[in-house]
Structure formats: C-alpha cells, structure tokens
C-alpha cells in the first residue's frame, strides 16, 4: 500500500504544479459560455466572477425591511445547532441540525439581535428552497444563470437561499454539482481543496444523529437508530489536528472571500468549508455534474485514496 500512497502524493503535487492556480482568479464580467466551459468547467478550476448579476434587483432590494414586508409571514425551514456546525462530525457522531419551521421575520429578529434564543440559526435547506419556500423573491433575480445553462446545456437542479448568523459554519465536504454561489450582501469565506488532494483528506464512518433542544435550552444529541453510518470528514481546516491527520500537511488549500455582488464558480467534487459575515445573504445554483470521464477519473482517485488510507 505504501507505493500506492506515494504515487497518489506525487500525482496531487504534480496537479498543483502543472495546472491548478495558487489562488482563486477573478474574472471581471460574465464569460461567453463556450469559453467558460473550456477554461473553467473542463479543467475543473474555481474562479470568482464580478459583475455577473449586477442587473439583479435583489442587490439593492433585499434589505431587512423589504424582506419583512415581502415574505415576513412566510414559514421556512431553519437549521438550529448549539455551536453553528450543522451536518458535521462531533465526537463519534455525524450530527445534523434540528430543523424548525419559523416565520422569516422571526429569523430576522434573531439575526438583528432583538430576540435572544439558544443556538445558532441558519436558513440553509438545500432542496431548491428559494423556488419552493420563497417564490415571492424570484422576480428579484433570475431562476438560472443563462451563460452557465448554455455552457452545460441544462437548467439548474436547485436554486438555494442562504441567510444566517456569523457562527454558522459549513463543515468540509464535497458535492456532485457545478455550483455558482452568488453573494447578495455581506461576505462568504471559503476554504477550497481540489479533488486531487483527496489522499490528504481524512474520512471516517459515523453514527448519524440530530440535535434536539431541551426545555432548559441545552441541546441533546439524538441517534438516528435505523440509519446507515455516514462517511464524513472529521478534520476542521480552521484548526487541523496534524498529529491525528499528518497527511493533511501535504494539502494545499485555497482561501478566498466572495463579496457582495460577486459569484464563485465552485467546480463539482471540490472540497469546501464555508463561513460568513453576520446576516450574509446568498443564492446558489446547483447544476448536476456530468457523469463522464472526469467523474470516473475522480471516482478512481477516491477509491485509491481509500485503499491507501485503509478506510472503507
């Protein structure tokens, strides 16, 4: 197995040296579809695009006052955790948030500090919640990104709305989607790792559980007894335990901040960890990835990394 690990390390380092950028590049405007496919989607490289949705009314309209008037009474799904980490490893469990139905205004009350509640609140349901739960906001933007839809020959599978507190954190993971992440207000802070760094990223299998607030305001972890174990990344890139995960020293994460009015292209299967400024509002578009030679290539890398690291 040692030779497999050595080859994977060499391969990853060569990928960084040969074609991956040392920082996330910026484009100054929306690209032509074919050019974007050739330069970014095909090579599977991220970039930040400025002025890509400057025509959206949402950029100027989506103030707390406007949102209260437009959708304040709407009931929406909200993730609640004791520490801001939803869908993350906690000890020997993979713990999901308590999901509550709340009015949009009540979430704004918590974010603005006029109401105090135990826990950290985050609108983050990834089921096309903008279209399903907040259709009143669709006229303030576009239901897809035209040049991306043309480049991929399809419409997005989901359009998601994000709003939360500064303590809300998205733990390191990857998605099988081509992701366009648009920040409407505030900032999002990303740590990115390419699929070729998979040999340095630890995985484990964890009992699934969910947070549940008790009468006294404390949160209890409740096991999902009948569920399968969940493969997840136990490493926190903000404070990596190098003694426990020494291979992570070879990873080369990219850090970037996406500001209001900017769009991050996050390629499929890139690992990412996300933080945000308090009250940040964002919308993202998920386009299902092509299950082609690129997918098969990264799946092979995934399998070899599991063999080399002795995981299942």
UniProtKB/TrEMBL annotation:
Top-level lineage group: Eukaryota
The keyword Transport appears for this protein: no
Alphabetical list of InterPro entries matching this protein: Cupin_8, JmjC_dom, RmlC-like_jellyroll
Compartments where located: Cytoplasm; Nucleus
Annotated keywords: Cytoplasm, Disulfide bond, Hydrolase, Iron, Metal-binding, Nucleus, Oxidoreductase
Pfam families: Cupin_8
Cross-referenced SUPFAM superfamilies: Clavaminate synthase-like
Gene Ontology CC terms, in alphabetical order: cytoplasm; nucleus
Function: Bifunctional enzyme that acts both as an endopeptidase and 2-oxoglutarate-dependent monooxygenase. Endopeptidase that cleaves histones N-terminal tails at the carboxyl side of methylated arginine or lysine residues, to generate 'tailless nucleosomes', which may trigger transcription elongation. Preferentially recognizes and cleaves monomethylated and dimethylated arginine residues of histones H2, H3 and H4. After initial cleavage, continues to digest histones tails via its aminopeptidase activity. Additionally, may play a role in protein biosynthesis by modifying the translation machinery.
This protein's name: Bifunctional peptidase and (3S)-lysyl hydroxylase JMJD7
Source organism (scientific name): Poecilia latipinna
Native organism taxonomy: Eukaryota, Metazoa, Chordata, Craniata, Vertebrata
